[in-house]
Amino acid sequence: MILELDCGNSFIKWRVIDGAQAVTVIGGVVGSDSELVSALLAMPAPSLTHCRLVSVRSDDETLALTRRLDELFGIESVCARPALEMAGVRNGYVEYQRLGLDRWLAVLGAFHLAKKPCLVLDLGTAVTSDLVMADGEHLGGFICPGMPLMRNQLRTHTRRIRYDDEAASRALDEMAPGRTTVEAVERGCLLMLRGFVLAQMELAKEYLGDNFEVFLTGGDALLVRDVLPGARVLPDLVFVGLAIACPLD
Ligand SMILES: Nc1ncnc2c1ncn2[C@@H]1O[C@H](COP(=O)(O)OP(=O)(O)O)[C@@H](O)[C@H]1O
Ligand SMILES: CC(C)(COP(=O)(O)O)[C@@H](O)C(=O)NCCC(=O)O
Ligand SMILES: [K+]
C-alpha cells in the first residue's frame, strides 16, 4: 500500500492506493499533521509500504512530517522535486526550482492525460493557472488569492466585516445581490474568482489556440465549474502528476 500526500498551504490531501492495482483504498482531507496521523492510525490494518508526497510547505515542516511517518509506520517518504523537464513537459519558469511543486505536478498530470495543449486551474488557498503548449512547453501562469485568502483579508482588514465560516457556506446557495454582509462578501469574492477563470480562458485561446483542454482541481474547483462547462474536474490531478514524478518501482 502506498500513502500519497499533497501538502497544501491549508490542507493535506491524502490517500492510500493499492500499489499493484493503483486503486484508491481510502483517503481524505485533513487540517494538520496530527489529524493525518490520527486518520492513518484509525485505518483498518493497511500495511503501508511506501509514501510519496508533494509539499508547498517549508522544508522544516515537510521534514517533521516525514520523520513522524517513518517513526510511526516505518516508511520512508519520497518527495517530489523540481525539474526542468519531465514526461515531455518543459518547465517554463526562469528559475524552474521556484515553480510551486503542486503546480508542476498538476501540469505533468494534465499533459499526460490530455496529450494536447492544456489550461490547468488549481483553486486552493491560492488560485493558480498554468498553460502548456502542444509540444509540452509550459508557458508559465498566474497566481491570485483564493477564496480563503480573499475572505480573510476582508475580515481582518476592515472593522465591520465579521462572520463565521458556517454562514459563509450558506451564502453561496444563491448569487443574487447580497442583502447581508456575509452574502455580499462571499458572492463578491466568488464573482472575482469566476472572472479570473474566464479571463484565463481568453488568455488560453490567445496562447494555445482553440483546441486546448481545461483541467480544474483544488478544494474550491466546484465553485467555478458552472462557468467552465467543458473543463475536466479532477480533484486528484496532483496525484496523477505525483505518480509520474515519483515512480516507486
Ligand atoms: N473536504 C474539504 N476539506 C477542506 N476544505 C475543503 C474541502 N472541500 C472543499 N474545500 C475547500 O477547499 C479549499 C482549500 O483547497 P485546497 O486545494 O485543499 O487548498 P490548499 O492546497 O491550498 O491547502 C478551502 O477553501 C475549502 O473551502
Ligand atoms: C502558488 C502556491 C502558493 C499555491 O499553493 P496552494 O494554494 O495550493 O496551497 C504554491 O504553488 C507555491 O507556493 N508556489 C511557489 C511560487 C510559484 O509557484 O511561483
Ligand atoms: K492552489
Automatic annotation (TrEMBL):
Summarize where substrate binds, as residue positions: Y93, G100, L101, D102, R103, T181
Subcellular location, principal: cytoplasm
Tell me which EC number(s) this protein carries.
2.7.1.33
Q: Which UniProt keywords apply?
A: ATP-binding, Coenzyme A biosynthesis, Cytoplasm, Kinase, Metal-binding, Nucleotide-binding, Potassium, Transferase
Q: In which pathway does it act?
A: Cofactor biosynthesis; coenzyme A biosynthesis; CoA from (R)-pantothenate: step 1/5
Binding positions for ATP per the UniProt entry: D6, C7, G8, N9, S10, F11, I12, K13, T125
InterPro entries, per this entry? ATPase_NBD (IPR043129), Type_III_PanK (IPR004619)
Task: Give the co-factor note.
Answer: A monovalent cation. Ammonium or potassium.
* Co-factor requirement: K(+); NH4(+)
Catalytic activity entry? (R)-pantothenate + ATP = (R)-4'-phosphopantothenate + ADP + H(+)
CDD domains tied to this protein: ASKHA_NBD_PanK-III
- According to its UniProt record, this protein's enzyme class is transferase
Pfam families from the UniProt entry: Pan_kinase
Q: Where in the cell is it found?
A: Cytoplasm
Question: Single GO molecular-function term?
Answer: pantothenate kinase activity
Q: Where does K(+) bind?
A: D122
Q: Does the keyword Cytoplasm apply?
A: yes
Positions of the catalytic residues: D102 (proton acceptor)
- Annotated NCBIfam families: baf, PRK13322.1-2, PRK13322.1-4
What the protein does comes down to:
Catalyzes the phosphorylation of pantothenate (Pan), the first step in CoA biosynthesis.
The family assignment reads: Belongs to the type III pantothenate kinase family.
Q: What is this protein called?
A: Type III pantothenate kinase
